[in-house]
Amino acid sequence: MKKLVLILLILAVVGGSAFAFDIHSFPAPIQKGSIMISPTFGIGNYYYSGAVLSFMAQIDYALPISIALTVGGEVGFAMTTWKADYYTYKPFAIPILARVAWHPNFEVRGLDPYVAIKMGAAIGLLGGTKKYGSYEYKGRSGFAFGFNVGCRYFFNNTIGVFGELGYDQYWVGVKEKGPVYEYKWSWPMRTFFRLGVTFKV
Questions:
Q1: Is 193 buried (19+), middle (13-18) or exposed (0-12) by CB count in 10 A?
Q2: pTM greater than 0.90
């Protein structure tokens, strides 16, 4: 009985909100010429260690053309920790990417759905174990790319929130140098889900 009452209460709230929704009371999302600055937090995984955390800053510019496109870039860092036997590696990636996004409709009040693709490079750094006996370890850099489906919601004409689902990949690795040989290996850091805020200029 309690579950039934709770379900009916939720349906009533949702239904009331739907009927009270006034599309004209919400702010317009982005206009041609808008500049958006968006700090983001992302989560993903690494081949060996599991969880990856990323912190990125995006800048997007809405092109003054008939097609709803934004161009821009993003930069930040992703990190993880990998423990193997006597070693503790802490790979860092500093991705630097160019991005292009298509927005299906600039006119949707308060909402800004989009599809984005990006490409660039990831600077690889290494924390943790950097030397073990006669072996030295350094980070390796590599290729970076991604594609995302996202949606922004603007509270007013200057600030909003957004979420993205997709796949971002940063190829970074470790260079192992010994007295006789040098060995290199790389694996991708990946992020799948990101949340952030948007400040519209």
A1: middle
A2: no
Contacts of 8 (CB under 8 A, 6+ apart): none
- Residues whose CB is less than 8 angstroms from the CB of residue 120 and which lie 6 or more positions away in sequence, other chains included: 73, 95, 96, 97, 98, 144, 145
**Residue among 41, 66, 167, 54 nearest 116 (CA):** 167
Q: What is the pLDDT of residues 72-107, one digit of tens each?
A: 999 998 988 777 666 677 778 899 999 999 988 756
Rounded Cα–Cα distance for residues 158 and 164 (Å): 20
What the block records as the tokens of 50 is 């599991």
Whose tokens are 């040098």? That residue is 182
Which long-range contacts does 29-32 make (Cβ < 8 Å, 24+ apart)? 29/103, 29/106, 29/108, 29/109, 29/110, 29/111, 29/112, 29/152, 29/154, 29/160, 30/62, 30/70, 30/103, 30/106, 30/112, 30/152, 30/200, 31/62, 31/106, 32/62, 32/63, 32/64, 32/65, 32/106
Q: Where are the domains of the chain?
A: 33-200
pLDDT in tens, 141-194: 888 999 999 999 988 888 999 999 999 998 887 776 766 667 666 678 889 999
CATH class belonging to 33-200: mainly beta
